[in-house]
Every structure is written in C-alpha cells, then in structure tokens.
C-alpha cells in the first residue's frame, strides 16, 4: 500500500472511494455544507450517526467530485486515537470487500481533532495509516495459485494507493505521521504473516531466515545459533523443549545499533514456539491448530526491531528469540524430568506444556549476562490463564520496576495495544517450589499467569528493570471472538512506543 499525503482540493481527488470522516459533533456542525458541495443528498444524515467505525458508501452528483464513490466515515466522539484507528480499520476493510484499490480520505478536520484529542496531527495520521493496514490485511499466501510464486510475483488484492488529503497547515506533520504509520503497519503485517503460517511452513530456521532477510534489508546485525552452538552453550531449557522434535532449534539474536552515541541498551526477548502440541503433556485436540501462533512473541520482537531500525530510533536494541516447536516424539522430555537451564538453575518439568518459560529462561539469562541491558522485556504467549483473566483484547504485564511498568502501561494506551499490570508478590513462590529441583515449571491450580511470571523472575539474575508481557489473548483471535481472526501482530506497536519512551 502506497500512502501519499496531498493538499489537492477535495473535488478533484481522483479515487475509487473518498472517505469523509466526521465526529459526532462535526457532523452537526458542518456535514450539511460539505455534503452539499459534493452534491450528496442530505437525507443520508438521517441514517448516519458517526459512530466510531461506521461507514456508509454513497454516490454523489457527477461533475461535483472526481471520486467514483463517497464514504461517510464515523469517528465517534473523536476524542481518542483509538477512534481514528477504528475508523480507518472499517474504511480499509470496506474498501477491500468492495475490491477498490485506489482510495482517499479527506482529513481536513485533522488539526481540529488534534486539539480535541490532545494528540499531535502526526499521531492521528500514524493511527489512521496503521488502521488501514489492519483493516486491509488478508492472509492468503497459502491459497493455491500463490503457493509457488515468488513474493514479488503475487498480485494480491487490496488497497494499492491511499491518498491522505489535508490542509496546508497540517501537511508536514501528516507526512511525518504517515511515514511512521507505514513502517509500523508493514512491520505488523510481517508479524501477522509469520504468526499465521502453520508448522508445516514455519519452523525455527524459518524465523531465523525471516530475521536475516529483515536485518540485511534494514541494516542491523542478525546472528543465529544452530543446534550445535546451543548444545555448546548448554542452553538446557531450549534443548529440553526441542527433544521431541524432528526439527532443530534456533537461537536468534538481532542487534540494532543506531548511528552516533547511544547509552541505553534495551533487550527484547520473544517466545518462538512454532507449534505447541503440549509435548507429552499433550493438549486437547480441539483448536490445537491455533498453537501455530505460539511464536507471536518472536514475531513482535522481530517486527519491533525492524520498525526501530527503519525509524532510526536512538536506542541500542538486542532482540533474543529462542525458537523450536514443542512435540511429543519418542525422545521428548517427560513430566517429572529434571533439566539444567543455561543459568545452572535446575527445573523439575511438572508439565511439558509449560515449555515457553523453559526457553525464555535461557534467553533471559543469556541476554543479561552477554549484553548487560539497562532494560529487559520479554513478550510471550505464555499462559491460557491470562486469557481467562484479561480476555482477548488485553495483555498481562508484570514488572519489578514501577517506572518501567508505568511506561509500558502508557505505551499501551497510546498504541491501542493495552496491557494491565498484575502482581509479582513473593507469596506466589510457594506454588512453584520443587522437592527435587530448584524450581518447578508449573504452579498448580490458581494464578497460572502469575506463577509463570514468578518462574521467569528466577532467571533474571537480580536485574532491576525487567518486564514480562503475556500476549496469549491478544496475539491471535479465534474465529468466534470477532470478525477478524488469526494473528494480530500485537506487540509491534506497543514495543515501538515503549522504545520511544526509553530512548
Ligand atoms: N502456549 C501455551 C499458552 C497459550 C494458551 C497461548 C492458549 C495461547 C492460547 C503455553 O505453552 C501453555 O500451554 N501453558 C499452559 C501452562 C500450564 C501447563 C501450567 C497453560 O496455560 O495451560
Ligand atoms: Zn504449552
Ligand atoms: Zn506454549
């Protein structure tokens, strides 16, 4: 999708569909005048309420505008960035449904909305473009006819060009915002594509390849440890989870260092389980296919590092991705096994389905030991219990640092990828005590999300600035939960916002 900011006058904007966004107040104030100028019958205002995301497509009087169709687009009260994002999602989704490739939006109102939302013009423009990427996303690369073609040869339907029209006063800020929205939107798309690929098409080495391609293209270093390196390093958590698989594990390191002097080093750790069968503690078969999304944390780390590199954020970022599938092969680890992690800490594997924490344990210890980051954040589809607690829209947040927790919470509010903090009180340690090893990887009934976080905390070697984000809910939407299903790319926009705050 090519997005162009233009000052061209509304009537001469050429497009298949031109959207006119209105907030509920704006609708009362100037809709009649704007519709009249385009030759649109005022009676439509009996039906259109400008609810956030509402779209009505209609035809104006030819000769009064160059667009083929006009869409009235609701911004709701227009008081938050979320309203802009929501409107853009609906507009793009409708455009794709109608197979319209060249669309436009008249954002003459953007400066007024910047005032009423307390946000900058650039932020609103970013949100709109991000929303257009979300609404127009389709995962169709595995449909026949597309399978064997090179990426560049596949002509997928969707929005080809979006014209973003603003008044002269908002032009520069809009260009800035559109550029950022384009980067974040396309990195979210990359993350969604990876999440949606099933185990038959995405193994640990494929995540490594995707990382290498991205690093090559956007100028950051990527190092991949293969099985032999992982054995030499004695990453016992990652090796234990990989034991039942035919596919080798990978440990992927992304290193983005901006030009000039930077002092802050941020490590991002993403769970990369390409398919989680549960291992010997096999999951129930219903919906097990959704566990192809168990590498969503890895996808959001890759998306966020690529976005940071493309935006040139002034912060040194290390991405760490332990990757494997979790399978119940004959050589698989067994419940009751005791393993030694990279840190030397021994773990009783109470349940082989609690595999994410085993691979993250190694990555957290390695990342801290090797890179001594100022901040370390892990992101993972870690527990079903987190979905029970917070549902499919919100991620769980844990941190041993109140300032970092507040920054991540605010980044969630800003990006629309919301997080809610939960406690790390020591009383939960009781649940993960083991009789035979240093710690157990399961905490029994109750507080499953918290005991998982308490487990991870044992592997940060006393680091004072750590956060854990559990994205089991918002990373992948099952068919029943809403209109769009599949990978969401949750975490890319959130982490970019966090990185901006930490820079
Ligand atoms: N990958 C799952 C968590 C998950 C569940 C993510 C549903 C997305 C949707 C994780 O590896 C897992 O299986 N966790 C277990 C932990 C339990 C065995 C202690 C869980 O949540 O049931
Ligand atoms: Zn599992
Ligand atoms: Zn898992």
CATH topology of the largest domain: Aminopeptidase
Proportion in β-strands? 15-25%
CATH architecture level-2 label of the largest domain:
3-Layer(aba) Sandwich
Provide a count of the helices: 14
Distance between the termini: 29 Å
Mean pLDDT: 95
Q: Name the bound molecules.
A: ligand BES, zinc ion
The CATH top-level class label of the largest domain: Alpha Beta
Helix content: 25-40%
Low-confidence stretches: none
The major sheet is characterized as: 9 strands, mixed
Q: How many domain modules?
A: 2
Sum up the overall morphology in one term.
elongated
CATH homologous superfamily identity of the largest domain = Zn peptidases
Structural class: alpha/beta
User: How many β-strands, per DSSP?
Assistant: 20
- Oligomer, anyone? single chain
Measured on Cα atoms, how large is the radius of gyration?
24 Å
Task: Explain what this protein looks like in three dimensions.
The two termini are 29 Å apart. This protein has two domains: 2-166, Leucine Aminopeptidase, subunit E, domain 1 (3-Layer(aba) Sandwich), CATH 3.40.220; 191-502, 3-Layer(aba) Sandwich (Aminopeptidase). By secondary structure, the protein is of the alpha/beta class. The longest helix has 26 residues, at 171-196. Helix 5 runs antiparallel to helix 9 (296-311), helix 9 crosses helix 14 and helix 12 (402-415) packs across helix 14. It is built from 14 helices and 20 strands. It binds ligand BES and zinc ion (2 copies).
């Amino acid at each position: 999708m090519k997005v162009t900011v233009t000052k061209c006058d509304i009537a001469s904007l050429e497009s298949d569909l031109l959207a006119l966004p209105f907030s509920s107040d704006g609708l009362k104030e100037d809709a009649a005048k704007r519709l009249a100028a385009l030759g649109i019958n005022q009676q439509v205002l009996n039906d259109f309420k400008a609810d956030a995301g509402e779209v009505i497509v209609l035809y104006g009087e030819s000769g009064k505008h160059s667009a083929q169709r006009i869409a009235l687009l609701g911004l709701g009260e227009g008081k938050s960035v979320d309203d802009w994002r929501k409107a853009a999602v609906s507009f793009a989704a409708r455009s794709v449904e109608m197979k319209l490739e060249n669309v436009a939006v008249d954002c003459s109102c953007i400066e007024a909305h910047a005032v009423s939302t307390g946000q900058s013009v650039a932020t609103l423009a970013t949100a709109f473009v991000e929303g257009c990427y979300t609404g127009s996303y389709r995962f169709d690369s595995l449909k026949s006819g597309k399978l064997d073609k090179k990426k560049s040869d596949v002509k997928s339907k969707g929005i080809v060009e979006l014209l973003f029209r603003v008044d002269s006063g908002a032009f520069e800020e809009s260009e800035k915002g559109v550029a950022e929205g384009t980067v974040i939107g396309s990195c979210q798309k990359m993350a969604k594509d990876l999440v949606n690929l099933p185990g038959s098409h995405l193994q640990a080495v494929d995540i490594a390849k995707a990382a290498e391609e991205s690093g090559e293209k956007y100028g950051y270093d990527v190092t991949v440890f293969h099985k032999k390196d992982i054995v030499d390093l004695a990453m016992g958590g990652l090796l234990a989870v990989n034991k039942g698989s035919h596919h080798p594990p990978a440990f992927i390191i992304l290193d983005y260092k901006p030009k000039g002097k930077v002092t802050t080093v941020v490590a991002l750790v993403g769970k990369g389980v390409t398919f989680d069968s549960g291992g010997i503690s096999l999951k129930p078969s219903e919906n097990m296919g959704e566990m192809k999304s168990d590498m969503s944390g890895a996808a959001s780390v890759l998306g966020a590092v690529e976005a940071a590199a493309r935006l040139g954020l002034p912060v040194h970022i290390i991405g760490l991705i332990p990757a494997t599938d979790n399978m119940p092969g004959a050589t698989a680890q067994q419940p009751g096994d005791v393993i030694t992690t990279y840190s030397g800490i021994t773990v009783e594997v109470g349940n082989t389905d609690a595999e994410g924490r085993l691979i993250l344990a190694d990555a957290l210890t390695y990342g801290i030991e090797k890179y001594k980051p100022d901040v370390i954040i892990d992101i993972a589809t870690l527990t079903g219990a987190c979905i029970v607690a917070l549902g499919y829209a919100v991620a769980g947040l844990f941190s041993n640092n109140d300032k970092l927790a507040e920054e991540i919470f605010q980044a969630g509010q800003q990006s629309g990828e919301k997080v809610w903090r939960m406690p790390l009180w020591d009383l939960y340690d009781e649940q993960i005590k083991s009789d035979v090893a240093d710690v157990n990887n399961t905490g029994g009934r109750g507080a499953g999300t918290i005991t998982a976080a308490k487990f991870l905390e044992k592997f940060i070697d006393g680091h004072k600035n750590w956060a854990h984000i559990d994205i089991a809910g918002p990373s992948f939407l099952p068919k029943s939960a809403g209109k769009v299903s599949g990978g969401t790319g949750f975490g890319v926009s959130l982490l970019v916002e966090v990185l901006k705050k930490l820079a």
